[in-house]
Amino acid sequence: MDSIPLLTHTDPSSLSYEEWLNVGIALKNEGYTASDWDKWSQQDTTRYKAGECFTQWALFDYSNIKNDAGVTQIVAGYEERLKDGQRHLNPENLGGLINQLPDLAPPLIDGVLRQGHKMLIAGPSKAGKSFTLIGLSIAIAEGAKWLGWQCMQGKVLYINLDLDRVSVLHRFKNVYQALRIHPYNSDNIDIWNLRGQLISIDRLASEIIEASQQKGYVAIIIDPLHKLLSHNEYNANQRAYFTNQFDKIATDLGSSVIYCHHHNPIGHGNKKSMDFLLSSNLLACEPDALLHLVENELSEDVLKRQANNVTCQIYANVIKQMNDNYYADHVLQDHEQSLLQMEYHATQALTPDLIAQAEEEISQAVQTINMRSAWRVEGTLREYPKFEAVNVWFQYPVHRIDETGILEDIKLDAEQTWKTNFDKKRPNKLRLNERISALEAAFEACNDENEIVTITSLAKHTGFTEKTIRNYIKEHGKFVVDKGIVTWRE
Fold first, then answer.
1. What's the rounded Cα separation, in Å, for the pair 313 and 302?
2. Where does the chain hold its CATH 3.40.50.300 domain(s)?
3. CA dist., res. 444 & res. 123, Å (int)
4. CATH says 426-488 is which class?
5. How many whole angstroms from its chain centre is CA 347?
6. How far apart are CA 357 and CA 366, in angstroms?
7. Which DSSP letter does residue 151 get?
8. Cβ-based neighbour number of residue 88 at 10 Å
9. Distance between CA atoms of residues 204 and 373, nearest Å
């Protein structure tokens, strides 16, 4: 059957971009040429662009976009729409609605995302984005919190495009265990494993809608997005077609669509999350919620402070458990913040065997600290006010909120640059006085705790390295160091 005459009854100016694109795909599937599509498209004098049909025609070969509907079906749908009076927009008058507004969709993630809306999670490789999405799936299924935000309980479809079936099942169990959540409602999670299957976004959208009509999913989670993308993500029209499929899923099912995407780990701490993703050629304006994972660089001093804190905590726990009387009589609250004090209390309260056990536990804890990474979760939201950045540790396989406050002091690239430039403008004498005061305060504190003050004890007290302490002592000029012992110069 010749499809070209059918198109004479269809005005291209009345079609959306997606509908126009579907006509082109159908024509190509039926063996017609780009010229046939171009000749018909010229009737839309407002939007027609010379050469665009030929460009899009070539892109169909790379995009894996397929359309099972033929021209006959497309035209029939168009005519049916005209019968229903849906050709033109049907605006609403606000006067009759202003005092009887419909209810907003309920929050799926409190303060972040409403049900039926879209969310993108972006970040560099190794940010743990997949683990984040698995954690979110579990939080929704169990009605628990995710990164500090309460989630509405409901059914989730997790579409796995990256891992083999066995690996993703083990990941879910590992995350459940790491979060210390019992899988009471794990039957709320359906996993659709599509690794290695070539599937276009429109076909995926159709199959999701068809398979999910009776499931009642509150969230469709796609991991990762780039498995569905081709080089056409940089083409505005193709991106519009792509994102419209997510809108179709959300509209037809009333489900939130949540997906993740990666970008290169370049220092962009001076950019807002949306600006950064726009510079990466992503449609950052498309999602209703955009969460961006930005890595915090951990300095040697930060890692050392973390190691000191966990060492003090372990010593305090062991002393309290094994020698509660000593703990009650001798360990003061501020002692638990001092590594020097807790090491001393350990020698007084514990046997050598218990100290050895504590040191083994400390060694494992410090190793864990050195293996984890620090991240800042920033957001750009449509439906809610902007939230303060959330600082988290990624400790395989989950992200945990930083409750120590240490990450709050770490600045991103632009903030670090600003602070560095500001410090350069401060008088050298002022900065020297600050270092002198800090060193003298540390010396007095260590001298009160122990008769002998050492380079090591000063480093532990301040959180600086021993090399830094030696430099401070050298510029101070009134301290003497002999075999690691620090005294006032007489």
1. 17
2. 107-296
3. 45
4. mainly alpha
5. 44
6. 14
7. B
8. 8
9. 35
Predicted structure pTM score: 0.65
Question: CA dihedral in degrees (331, 332, 333, 339; nearest 10)?
Answer: -60
Within the chain, all domains assigned CATH 1.10.10.10 are found at 426-488
For residue 38, is it left (φ>0), alpha (ψ between -120 and 50) or beta?
alpha
- 3-state secondary structure at position 145: strand
Q: Which residue has the tokens 């969230």?
A: 219
Strand, helix or coil for residue 240: helix
Q: In terms of residues, how long is the chain?
A: 490
Tokens (6 digits) for 74? 């497309």
Mean pLDDT by 10 residues, the chain (490 residues): 72 78 84 86 84 77 54 67 57 86 93 95 89 98 97 96 95 97 97 85 80 88 78 53 78 90 56 48 68 88 88 95 94 89 94 95 92 92 93 94 83 46 48 74 72 83 81 86 85
- Rounded to whole angstroms, the Cα distance separating 250 from 289 reads 14
Give CATH superfamily name and number for 107-296: P-loop containing nucleotide triphosphate hydrolases (3.40.50.300)
* Radius of gyration from C-alpha coordinates of the chain: 31
